[in-house]
Design brief:
Layout lengths: L24 E2 L5 E5 L5 H11 L2 E2 L7 H5 L16 E10 L2 E13 L10 E8 L10 H12 L7 E7 L3 E9 L3 H9 L9 H14 L6 E8 L10 H12 L4 E7 L6 H10 L4 E4 L2 H10 L1 H5 L1 E12 L4 E7 L19 E4 L3 E10 L25 E10 L12 E8 L9 H16 L10 H11 L6 H18 L4 E2 L5
Parallel strand pairs: 3-18, 6-7, 6-9, 9-10, 10-11
Antiparallel strand pairs: 1-13, 2-12, 4-5, 5-15, 7-8, 12-14, 12-16, 13-15, 16-17
Helix pairs in contact: 3-4, 3-8, 5-6, 6-7, 10-11, 11-12
Length: 495
């Protein structure tokens, strides 16, 4: 029998959806780029957890758009609430190659003070299976939900549903001014049993419907570390269950905790089909960021089914590449189809997207010249437009049926908007994008190495790097030491 020091470690069964980076597109062949916005940030905090533990993250755990959107770039906010968000663009030489350009699209939602948020009907759906018995799982989860509980107002309602071998109701809908009862119910939770998540989701939605607040915030918050291994275990069946429930006006947020059996692929997908968002909680500080500081954007949806479509002008742009959003790509015909689901924006949310462009005539083209293709017509188009940005969205509570259900915003992007140098916000976003690429193998950023990424990030925030920016620079150095230094432990591969 092996000694205690030689006992085998539990198998790492973390699951990440396999994907490939967006390819470079030839504008003459594919002038349209269409995708759904994404406000998730779970990939960044999960990868941070691995790097801080000296574990090299698997490539598929890195989603560039979630790295980029973890940070605030101070995009301008709307001046009125007539339109729930403001769209801005910036065009500048790409920091890694001046022969290319970087296009940054910024979306900023109007903010709502916490006191002005509509009444909230929240169901905490908590995994109490045996695997949650670890300091970074159930104890951290209880601390996180306790923080949120202390933000409640008398008009808010909280229910608590748990699931292990079976689902159970721990706390029926309870007023926010009875925080003591809610906190006591959280404190009593203990881990044990297997994981029947399917039954838990059904009971949680039943509680949400029972306490439904018309015109309010109705949301299930699912907190778990991993797989559903009893009951409804088929991922497609779970996705269908959640997608059916969102039609009743109840959103689903997923919060990931812990390690070893964390199912990132399922947590992210359920939040996507549930009209919610996905975050990963690795520290008390991250819990405070997601559930206290960003409570309005996490809870209150101000725009639904937000889709972006960019049409590039082949007379001025020979190639383009969308950075990240690989699992958010939409068919071009789905942009105008109001039946097709897309991402949502919460109050005060920022969304950032980056495109790398190669201008016509640049020596930095990536794609080979085609022997039998005529060059695009040498005309600049309308007023030197390099692209036209279109964005569709719905107001919360709108009926999906009407032909005029969604609203359209159009923004032309002009060649004359090209700046001599990128702003500090764009430089920092570029550094974050390059870091994500370096963690996935480092093939897209023209020789930028770890030191150049860190140097650009430091320069972008001048002498006033905030806590998150400073932490990012430290993570770049940690990743460099881990990957270029001694062989590192490796996390689970993709499923």
């Amino acid at each position: 029998m092996p000694s205690a020091g030689l006992m085998a470690q539990p198998a790492n069964t973390e699951k990440y959806a396999e994907r490939e980076d967006n390819p470079v597109r030839r504008t003459a062949d594919e002038p349209l780029s269409t995708f759904s916005i994404d406000v998730d940030t779970g990939s960044y905090s999960n990868v941070r957890r691995m790097l801080n533990q000296g574990v090299r993250p698997p490539a598929d755990s890195v989603r560039a758009e979630e790295f980029i959107n973890y940070f605030d770039y101070n995009h301008p906010a709307p001046t009125t609430r007539d339109t729930p968000f403001r769209v801005t663009t910036e065009l500048a030489p790409a920091p890694w190659n001046a022969q290319r350009q970087l296009l940054m699209i910024g979306i900023k939602g109007y903010d709502v003070p916490k006191a002005a948020l509509p009444p909230a009907n929240l169901v905490f759906l908590i995994d109490t299976s045996g695997s949650m018995d670890a300091p970074d799982k159930l104890p951290l989860l209880k601390s996180a939900f306790s923080m949120l509980t202390r933000q409640l107002r008398p008009q808010d309602r909280i229910s608590i549903v748990v699931y292990a071998g079976s689902a159970g109701l721990v706390l029926p809908p309870t007023s926010g001014d009875r925080q003591g009862e809610i906190l006591e119910a959280l404190d009593r939770l203990q881990a044990g049993g297997s994981t029947n998540g399917g039954d838990g989701i059904r009971l949680a939605y039943a509680m949400a419907k029972q306490a439904y607040v018309k015109g309010g915030v109705n949301r299930v918050i699912l907190a778990t570390d991993g797989d559903f291994n009893v009951g409804t275990v088929n991922q497609n069946a779970l996705e269908t269950l959640v997608a059916d429930q969102r039609k009743s006006g109840i959103a689903l947020t997923t919060l990931g905790f812990g390690q070893g059996n964390y199912n990132d692929a399922l947590s992210e997908k359920l939040a996507d089909v549930g009209d919610g968002n996905h975050a990963y909680i690795d520290t008390v500080q991250e819990a405070r960021k997601v559930l206290v500081e960003e409570m309005g954007s996490t809870m209150l949806t101000i725009a639904r089914d937000v889709k972006i479509q960019v049409e590039f002008n082949p007379a001025l742009v020979s190639e383009y590449r969308l950075i990240g959003y690989e699992n958010r790509i939409l068919k071009h015909e789905d942009f105008d189809n109001d039946k097709v689901d897309a991402g949502d924006i919460g109050a005060g949310h920022e969304v950032t997207a980056l495109y790398e462009l190669t201008p016509v005539g640049s020596t930095a083209a990536r794609l080979p010249v085609l022997r039998y293709r005529d060059a695009p017509a040498a005309q600049a188009g309308k007023g030197g437009e390099i692209a036209n940005l279109k964005l569709r969205y719905k107001r919360p509570g709108q009926d999906d049926g009407g032909a005029d259900s969604s609203r359209l915003i159009q923004t032309p992007i002009l060649r004359s908007q090209l700046r001599a140098r990128p702003s500090e916000s764009m430089r920092f976003a570029a550094s974050v994008a390059a870091f994500a690429d370096a963690l996935r193998g480092g093939s897209r950023y023209d020789g930028w190495g770890w030191e150049r990424i860190a140097r650009e990030a430091r320069a972008a925030c001048s002498d006033d790097c905030g806590n998150q920016q400073g932490e990012f620079i430290g993570l770049v150095q940690r990743a460099r030491a881990l990957i270029e230094g001694e062989p590192a432990r490796t996390a689970a591969v993709s499923d």
